[in-house]
Amino acid sequence: MSMQPDLLEGSSGDGLAARRAALRALEKILGQKKMLDTVLIEERYFADLPVRDRPLVRMMVSTVLRRKGQLDDLIARALDREAPRPETLKWILYLGIAQILFMDVANHAAVDTSVTLAGEAGLEGKKGFVNAILRRMTNEGNGWLDAQDAAALNVPAWLYRQWIASYGIVRAKDIANALLQQAPLDITAKQSVDQTQLAKDLSAKILPTNSLRREEGGLVEELTGFSSGYWWIQDAASALPVKLMGNLIGRTVLDMCAAPGGKTMQLADAGAKVIALDRNANRMKDLRANLARMGMESGVECVIEDGAVWNPRQTFTHILLDAPCTATGTARRHPDLLSLKSEKDQTALVATQERLLNNAARLLEAGGMLVYCTCSLQKAEGEDQVENFLKSHANFKRVPVRREEFGGMDGFVNSEGDVRVLPYLMKEEGGMDGFFISRLQKTS
Asked: Residue 422 pLDDT more than 70?
């Protein structure tokens, strides 16, 4: 059941408008399978909220998406029958329980606003039911939480099975629990910027990998240096692949699947002439906007083509392929992914990655370097993909990554010399996105 648009207008001063917006967002994400960021960008009900209410909406929705498996289990413990219907009723319970058990929200506020939402959504006859379930959560919920296996509940079964097979049960649990945490804001600064001073201005710390990390909140557009084009947002793990490509001054580098442009800007900032390739015209608009803000347009040529079949006249000595993937390593930032991605999606993406790798191999000159990476935690999209590529391309070899290339940090490089970043690494510093990187050279 959809909420009426007029229910989302205005703020009563009691946080009800934010909760209406959160419910509408869940309707779009879980009911219509839209991405969280897309919903918050495109939907008027979020944009019309006072700025102070927007973080609460994002936090409520993100908490529900991160803890959805636990929430379903909690509801089942409180009921003697099947899950509540319609779906809107279940989403209202999600929001109420998430506030009571996982957020610093007064219980009465969570209960009262949830009951009101039920009435506004045409569920007047369910208000007593909502009140009873949420009151029970305030009394018994924490005890039920203690009995839960959060890792197994919150990760889809197909995905959790893969992690256990790849990493073992202990590390699979560590991964799942790390994805429950809110990711900090990571920043890549231009080489020309005084990084130490910028870190002070942003109240950020400099990580061993040389990214800047800011723990505090705030509107990104209002932070020091953003409008001046001093830096861009980029997770510390995502900033690693370009650092493995060596001296790029004067080199022409093909950045396949380039949008939205974080690595493109790294390459340009490192002195390369970049061919930024992406088949998605809308995402390429975002890339161009990012380049304009950073003042980097002159060093980048944007090409809208499918990298799997693109056939230019030139070949390249350096290619970066950040391939489309299930992106499960980014679930801290994008908690909707675990609800939206499926094993079928992974199968299709693995095939796409293979086609992109094959074309990259054709476009690379003999002696040239190909860096392949994905932000997936599945070995099918990383280690297995590279092993299959090397078996079918005898004229390629792996160039092992050395731990010294990451400041001597342990745990980043596997036994084959590839980079495998798991979300719980650098836990004391706030963790990282999951990532895989392999550096390959064409020998003939």
From this structure: yes
Nearest partner of 256 among 293, 286, 284, judged by Cα? 284
What DSSP assignment string belongs to 130-182?
A: HHHHHHHHHHHHHHHHHT--HHHHHS-HHHHHHHHHHH-HHHHHHHHHHTTSP
Q: What is the DSSP string of 6-46?
A: GGGSS--SSSHHHHHHHHHHHIIIIIH---HHHHHHH-HHH
Arithmetic mean of pLDDT over the chain: 93
Enter the tokens of residue 215: 């723990």
Output 326 or 411, whichever has higher pLDDT: 326
pLDDT confidence of residue 12: 45
Cβ atoms of residues 385 and 420 within 8 Å: no
Eight-class DSSP state of 245: S
The reported pLDDT for the residue numbered 43 is: 82
CA-angle at 399, arms to 168 and 374, nearest 5° = 50
Mean pLDDT over 134-161 rounds to 96
Catalytic residue among 257, 302, 373, 375: 375
Q: Contacts from 210-216 at CB under 8 Å and sequence distance 24+? A: 210/239, 210/243, 210/407, 211/186, 211/187, 211/235, 211/236, 211/239, 212/186, 212/187, 212/188, 213/184, 213/185, 213/186, 213/187, 213/429, 213/430, 214/184, 214/185, 214/186, 214/187, 215/184, 215/185, 215/430
d(Cα 444, Cα 441) in Å, to the nearest integer?
A: 9
Half-sphere exposure of 70 (CA within 13 A, CB side): 26
For residues 29-43, give the mean pLDDT.
Answer: 91
Residue whose entry in the numeric block shows the structure tokens 């083509």: 305
Ranges of H-type helices in 51-86: 54-66, 68-78
pTM metric for this prediction: 0.92
* Catalytic-residue membership of 302: no
pLDDT at 408: 72
Q: For residue 42, what pLDDT band results from cuts at 50, 70 and 90?
A: confident
Q: Dig out the tokens for 59 from the structure.
A: 């936090």
Q: What would the two tokens of residue 104 be?
A: 């610093």
Enumerate the β-bridge partners of residue 319: 254, 370
